[in-house]
C-alpha cells in the first residue's frame, strides 16, 4: 500500500514536465532591440539589430504620421523602401517565428536624406556644357562634378547654391559624365544623380568642291571633325537652298540649277547639336541652254537659226542634224548661225552654251521640215464605176498625202498617211484629173505636182420594170445612161441562172421554171470595165401544179385527196363539183379531207396552187366517180337447213356488190351477178350468230369496207323454207 502513492506522484511529475515543455515550445519570440537606423538613399532607411533566437524573419515598420510602410526581411540589417525624401520616420521591428510574432520594439527615429537633383545638360558651344536642375526640398547647396565618360583627364567639381552651372574649357565633341547631389543645413549629402552630355563639334575645315556639269551635281569633301556624328552640306543661291546629309566626310548635292552661283558650307552635328558654319566656297554652274530659238527658211534651201543670250554663257554651238544622220554645227560668240538645207528633209536643231564649268544642259530640240517632194510612179487603178485606187512610192519629207480628183465643179479629196488612196463617191462614166500632193504639217502641200487623166467605169443601169406575157416570157426594161455600153440582165435563183443582153433599154428571157423566185440585176460594160450591178428586183414565177392527185374514199360521204409538192409556203384549194353540189378544201398541207360527197356521182376535180405572194396556178385533173352507195334493207332468209339468202335494196345507180358472212364456224362470201340484189350462201350451220356486211365493189375490184354491219341469229327450229331469220343488233347500234 505504501508504494501506491509513490507511483502516482511519479506519474503526475512526468505529466507536469511534458506540459511545461509544450508550453515553452509555443511561446512567441523575444522583442528585438534596434541598434541603429540611418538613410543613405532618399527613399529608404536601413535598420540594424541583434538577432533573436528562434526568429525566422523580422517585420520592419516606418511611420511618418501620415503613412505606415512595412517590410519583411530575413535578418539584420534590413531596409525599408518606398519612403519620402527628407522625411522623419518612427522605426520599429518585430521578430517572427512559427509560434507567432513579438511585440514591437521601442521606436527609433531616422530621417531620409535629400532627393537627388534632376539634371538637364546641353552644350551651347564646342568647349562648354550647361547643367541645370530644379530646386530640391530642404537643400541649401549643391555639389556638381564633371569628367570625361571614358575616365581620362581631370575631374571638375563645383559647389553652388544656384540651380545651374556652366563648365568651360572642355574638349569639343567629347562625351562627359556629370554627377550632382544636394546637402541640407546639417551638411548631410542627399542622393546623387548622373547624366551624360557630349560637347558639340567644331566646324569642318578644308572644304573641297568639284562640279559635274553633265549631272548638274556638286561633290563636297572636308576634314573629319572630332565627335561629329553627321555632316550637313548647304548650297545657297539667290533663289534656292539645297542640302545633303552624311555620316562620312563627303557628300553630293544633285539637282543644281544651271546658270546659278552657289555658296557652299558644311555643318557638323552630334547629339549635342550643330557646329558653327564652315567658311563658304563659291561655285558657278554651267550656263542654261539658250532659249527662244527661232528657225526660218528664207530663201528656200537656207536655214537661219537664232537664239537669246544666257547668263554665265561665254560662247555658243548650234547643231543641225538631218533625218538621214548627217550633222553640221557652227561655233560663235553671237546668237545666230546659217545652214544650207534640202527639200523633203526634217532637221533636228539644238543650241548649247559653254563656260569654264562646261557645256549647258540639253535644251529643247527643235525640228524643221522642208517642203516635201511630189510623189512619182503614180499608178491609178480603177476599182469600180464610183471609186479609183491610187498607188505610189513614198517620198522624203511627206507626212500626209492629199489626192484630188477634179471633173468640172466636182472635186473629190482623199487624205491619208499611206502611199495609197481610194477616191470614192465619183461620178460614173466620167473623166477626172487626179493629182497627188505630198503634205507635211509644218510646210503644207507641194502644189507643183502633175495630174493624171482617168475615166471611171460605166454607170449601173436602173431596172424600170419586169413584166410577163401570156407565154411566161419575162420582159426586163432599164434606163440606160452610158454611151456605147452593153447591158446584161441576170435572173438568179435556186433553180438556175438565166441571162439576156442588149445594147438598148430592154431584153427578153424565157424558159424560167415555175414555182421559183429569182433576183434580177443588170450590169453595164464598156471598154473601161463593168459597172456595179443594179439594185436587184425580185421575180417570182407562178407556182407549179402537183404531178397527180390520189383520191381515197374514206367513208361513203368523205374522201381524202393527196398530192406531192416541192415548194414550202404554198397553199392549195381543192374543188370537187357535180350536178348535185360542190365540196371545197383550202390547206397548206399535201392532203385534204372533203365531206358531203354523194355516193355514186361523177365529180369534176380542180386544184389551185397559190404561192406565198399570192400568185396562182389553175390545175385541171380527170373526173372522179364517187363510190357506190351502201345497200339498204339487208335481210336474211332460210334456204333449207344449211342455206341462207341475203337480200338488199340498191339505193342509187348500178354497182357490183360483195357479201360477207362472219360466224364462229367460219367466214362465208358470195358475189352475185351484175344487176341482182341477193346472194345465196349454202353449207352454213344453224344455231350460230352471224355478222353480215354487204359492200359495193369499186371499178378497181377493191371492196369498200365502210358499209354498216348487221348481226343475225340463225336458229335450228321452225320452218326451214322462206322463214326470215331473227335479226340481232347491228354494229352501228
From TrEMBL:
SUPFAM superfamilies xref list: Fibronectin type III (SSF49265)
Family annotation (SMART domains): FN3
Signal peptide: 1-25
CDD domains: FN3
Domain Fibronectin type-III: 28-115, 116-202, 203-288, 289-373, 374-459
UniProt xrefs under Gene3D superfamilies: Immunoglobulins
Keyword Signal set for record: yes
UniProt keyword terms in alphabetical order: Signal
PANTHER family named in the record: FIBRONECTIN TYPE III DOMAIN-CONTAINING PROTEIN 7 (PTHR47135)
Protein name as annotated: Fibronectin type III domain-containing protein 7
Source organism (scientific name): Heterocephalus glaber (Naked mole rat)
Amino acid at each position: 500500500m505504501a508504494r501506491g502513492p509513490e507511483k502516482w506522484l511519479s506519474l503526475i511529475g512526468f505529466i507536469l514536465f511534458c506540459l511545461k515543455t509544450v508550453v515553452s515550445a509555443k511561446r512567441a519570440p523575444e522583442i528585438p532591440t534596434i541598434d541603429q537606423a540611418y538613410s543613405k538613399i532618399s527613399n529608404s532607411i536601413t535598420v540594424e539589430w541583434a538577432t533573436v533566437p528562434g526568429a525566422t524573419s523580422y517585420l520592419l515598420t516606418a511611420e511618418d504620421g501620415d503613412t505606415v510602410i512595412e517590410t519583411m526581411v530575413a535578418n539584420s540589417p534590413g531596409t525599408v523602401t518606398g519612403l519620402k525624401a527628407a522625411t522623419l520616420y518612427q522605426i520599429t521591428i518585430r521578430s517572427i517565428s512559427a509560434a507567432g510574432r513579438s511585440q514591437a520594439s521601442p521606436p527609433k527615429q531616422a530621417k531620409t536624406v535629400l532627393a537627388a537633383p534632376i539634371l538637364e545638360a546641353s552644350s551651347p558651344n564646342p568647349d562648354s556644357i550647361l547643367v541645370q536642375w530644379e530646386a530640391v526640398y530642404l537643400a541649401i547647396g549643391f555639389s556638381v562634378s564633371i569628367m570625361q565618360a571614358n575616365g581620362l583627364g581631370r575631374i571638375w567639381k563645383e559647389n553652388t547654391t544656384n540651380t545651374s552651372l556652366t563648365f568651360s574649357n572642355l574638349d569639343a565633341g567629347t562625351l562627359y559624365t556629370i554627377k550632382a547631389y544636394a546637402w541640407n543645413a546639417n551638411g548631410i549629402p542627399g542622393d546623387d544623380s548622373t547624366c551624360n552630355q557630349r560637347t558639340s563639334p567644331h566646324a569642318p575645315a578644308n572644304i573641297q568642291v568639284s562640279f559635274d556639269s553633265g549631272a548638274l551635281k556638286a561633290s563636297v569633301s572636308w576634314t573629319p571633325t572630332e565627335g561629329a556624328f553627321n555632316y550637313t552640306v548647304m548650297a545657297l543661291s539667290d533663289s534656292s537652298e539645297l542640302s545633303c546629309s552624311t555620316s562620312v566626310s563627303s557628300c553630293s548635292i544633285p539637282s543644281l540649277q544651271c546658270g546659278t552661283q552657289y555658296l557652299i558650307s558644311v555643318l557638323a552635328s552630334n547629339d549635342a547639336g550643330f557646329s558653327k558654319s564652315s567658311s563658304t566656297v563659291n561655285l558657278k554652274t554651267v550656263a542654261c541652254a539658250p532659249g527662244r530659238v527661232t528657225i526660218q527658211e528664207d530663201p528656200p534651201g537656207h536655214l537661219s537659226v537664232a537664239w537669246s543670250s544666257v547668263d554665265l554663257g561665254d560662247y555658243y554651238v548650234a547643231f543641225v542634224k538631218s533625218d538621214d544622220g548627217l550633222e553640221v554645227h557652227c561655233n560663235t560668240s553671237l546668237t545666230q548661225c546659217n545652214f544650207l538645207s534640202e527639200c523633203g528633209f526634217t532637221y533636228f536643231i539644238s543650241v548649247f552654251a559653254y563656260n569654264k564649268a562646261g557645256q549647258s544642259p540639253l535644251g529643247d530640240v527643235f525640228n524643221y521640215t522642208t517642203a516635201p517632194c511630189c510623189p512619182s510612179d503614180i499608178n491609178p487603178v480603177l476599182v469600180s464605176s464610183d471609186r479609183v485606187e491610187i498607188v505610189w512610192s513614198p517620198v522624203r519629207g511627206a507626212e500626209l498625202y492629199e489626192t484630188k480628183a477634179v471633173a468640172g465643179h466636182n472635186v473629190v479629196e482623199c487624205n491619208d498617211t499611206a502611199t495609197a488612196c481610194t477616191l470614192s463617191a465619183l461620178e460614173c462614166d466620167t473623166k477626172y484629173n487626179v493629182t497627188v500632193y505630198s503634205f507635211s504639217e509644218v510646210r503644207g502641200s507641194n502644189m507643183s505636182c502633175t495630174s493624171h487623166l482617168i475615166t471611171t467605169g460605166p454607170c449601173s443601169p436602173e431596172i424600170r420594170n419586169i413584166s410577163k406575157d401570156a407565154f411566161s416570157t419575162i420582159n426586163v426594161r432599164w434606163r440606160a445612161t452610158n454611151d456605147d455600153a452593153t447591158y446584161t440582165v441576170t435572173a438568179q435563183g435556186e433553180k438556175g441562172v438565166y441571162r439576156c443582153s442588149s445594147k438598148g433599154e430592154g431584153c427578153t428571157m424565157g424558159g424560167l421554171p415555175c414555182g421559183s423566185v429569182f433576183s434580177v440585176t443588170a450590169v453595164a460594160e464598156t471598154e473601161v470595165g463593168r459597172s456595179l450591178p443594179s439594185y436587184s428586183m425580185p421575180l417570182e414565177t407562178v407556182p407549179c401544179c402537183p404531178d397527180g392527185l390520189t383520191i381515197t374514199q374514206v367513208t361513203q360521204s368523205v374522201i381524202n385527196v393527196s398530192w406531192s409538192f416541192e415548194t414550202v409556203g404554198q397553199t392549195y384549194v381543192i374543188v370537187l363539183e357535180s350536178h348535185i353540189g360542190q365540196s371545197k378544201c383550202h390547206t397548206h398541207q399535201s392532203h385534204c379531207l372533203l365531206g358531203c360527197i354523194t355516193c355514186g356521182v361523177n365529180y369534176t376535180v380542180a386544184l389551185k396552187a397559190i404561192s406565198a405572194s399570192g400568185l396562182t396556178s389553175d390545175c385541171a385533173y380527170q373526173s372522179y366517180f364517187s363510190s357506190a352507195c351502201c345497200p339498204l334493207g339487208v335481210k336474211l332468209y332460210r334456204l333449207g337447213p344449211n342455206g341462207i339468202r341475203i337480200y338488199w335494196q340498191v339505193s342509187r345507180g348500178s354497182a357490183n356488190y360483195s357479201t360477207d358472212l362472219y360466224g364462229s364456224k367460219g367466214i362465208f362470201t358470195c358475189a352475185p351477178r351484175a344487176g341482182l340484189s341477193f346472194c345465196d350462201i349454202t353449207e352454213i350451220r344453224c344455231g350460230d350468230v352471224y355478222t353480215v356486211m354487204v359492200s359495193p365493189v369499186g371499178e378497181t375490184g377493191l371492196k369498200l369496207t365502210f358499209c354498216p354491219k348487221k348481226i343475225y341469229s340463225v336458229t335450228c327450229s321452225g320452218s326451214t323454207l322462206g322463214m326470215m331469220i331473227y335479226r340481232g343488233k347491228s354494229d352501228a347500234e
